[in-house]
Amino acid sequence: MYPEDVKYHKEHAWVKVDGKKVTVGISFYAQESLGDIVYIDMPEVDAGVEAGTEMTQIESTKATSSVVSPVTGTIVEVNEELTDSPELINEDPFGKGWIAVVEMDDESELGALMEPGDYEKYLEDEVKLK
């Protein structure tokens, strides 16, 4: 359920690292919590993002939710398929449901993100608190 080749932010975003670039999406837990995703406000290419701040918003049948950027940098690519098929986030959150590619300003920010096992423990602890 949680791929080993990605890192996780506490706000349920994930990153897959490729040099100075990271692909960003939301976790299985996040898409499951949202329910059926019906719209995503696609971020703009060349826009700057800051770690821990809103990158974009996702609308589902349950709620509108922010997607928080796990890293600081510049958006260099967005998943255009989500414009017409936002449900790809539900169907394949770690594959076809990716949201954007960010070129990082500071690769050391990756150290603040969680490994899969740590994220799963975080989810267990967080769910218990609710």
Largest sheet: 6 strands, antiparallel
Task: Name the structural class.
Answer: alpha+beta
Shape: globular
Specify Rg, calculated over alpha carbons.
Answer: 14 Å
Summed up, the domain count is: 1
The count of β-strands is 9
CATH class assignment = Mainly Beta
Helix proportion range: 10-25%
Low-confidence stretches: none
**Spatial ordering of strands, largest sheet:** 1-2-3-9-8-5
In whole angstroms, the N-to-C terminal distance is 21 Å
At the fourth CATH level, what is the homologous superfamily?
Answer: RNA polymerase II/Efflux pump adaptor protein, barrel-sandwich hybrid domain
CATH architecture: Beta Barrel
Give the overall average pLDDT.
Answer: 95
**CATH fold label:** OB fold (Dihydrolipoamide Acetyltransferase, E2P)
What is the count of helical runs?
4
Order of helices and strands: EEEHEEEEEHHEH
What portion of the residues fall into strands of 2 or more residues?
25-35%
